[in-house]
């Protein structure tokens, strides 16, 4: 549509699309941050606090069994809270790393079972209930946990619109390596506390993931994006990680300006790469890529 509009209108349309995409990325980051540490999960850290005075009272009154039971239950509650927290983080990572394979431990489910066991131990040893009643308390705690936090689903990492076996091994391995590099860039970007740079990194990461999904959807695009996967994504990772490490030790305007210019170039090249994959444009990207490569070298980041 933009090609039929005057240049000014086309630029305005492009700017509007970028603003909308930036807003979507911001909302997505907010949702991801909330999912990593949901507020209601804090209840799990508050839940075992009454056991601390209960242990002191049991110790002072010479009730050794109650003291040991409450102590074990307190440790189990903390273990359940830790497993739940890591379970939420694992769920976010699982949604981001779409091309990786491997066993995914059901951490959130394990956390729920641990909380249930801790509740049963508290009811049995701390409160002195009989075994059936203590088990009933444990089952009730597990049911409440599932209602509040849910359990791990049975999702298996899969490729977009395709099966891992349908891709050639070279393409599958390249996508897996590229995805790990993108995740590394994201982790390094989380250590950079500069709003403008974080916004640009978010767009770069989104473009890189879109390129991977497009290759998975149409493996013929692998040839067009080979240099992006094997060379320039690696360069982007080294630059971002290097700046993140330097940024925590030394922050200078010159370094920040150099890094900003490199990010602008990376975003432009990644955007062109993605658009050309969408358009099935077979034009050579070497010129654009060489510009990026020369700038990465000249900036010395």
TrEMBL record:
<keyword id="KW-0812">Transmembrane</keyword>
<dbReference type="InterPro" id="IPR018770">
    <property type="entry name" value="ChloroindolylP_hydrolase"/>
</dbReference>
<feature type="transmembrane region" description="Helical">
    <location>
        <begin position="66"/>
        <end position="84"/>
    </location>
</feature>
<keyword id="KW-1133">Transmembrane helix</keyword>
<keyword id="KW-0472">Membrane</keyword>
<feature type="transmembrane region" description="Helical">
    <location>
        <begin position="105"/>
        <end position="125"/>
    </location>
</feature>
<feature type="transmembrane region" description="Helical">
    <location>
        <begin position="43"/>
        <end position="60"/>
    </location>
</feature>
<feature type="transmembrane region" description="Helical">
    <location>
        <begin position="131"/>
        <end position="151"/>
    </location>
</feature>
<dbReference type="Pfam" id="PF10112">
    <property type="entry name" value="Halogen_Hydrol"/>
</dbReference>
<protein>
    <recommendedName>
        <fullName>5-bromo-4-chloroindolyl phosphate hydrolysis protein</fullName>
    </recommendedName>
</protein>
